[in-house]
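Collaborator request, handled under Task 6.
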Amino acid sequence: MSYCRCGEPVHPVRIKYGYKTCVSCSGVERVASAPVINHKTGNTIQVGTQEVAKALYKAGSRKGYGTCLK
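Structure tokens returned to the collaborator:
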């Protein structure tokens, strides 16, 4: 079992892919997603950075956007 610098064990799958730190100590930003609603049944998600997801949520929540007036 390999241990991170913080003392926590590193998950075996992370070791398999070459990582030497635990998830908590990782310096990589988490991936985020935001819903993209095209029609009633044509929904998808947009995967990107935290910054992109926040911008999409902000744009989608403004008054009069799409068909749902708030």
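The cover message to the collaborator said: "DSSP finds two helices and two strands in the chain. The chain has a mean pLDDT of 81. Please let us know whether this matches your experimental observations."
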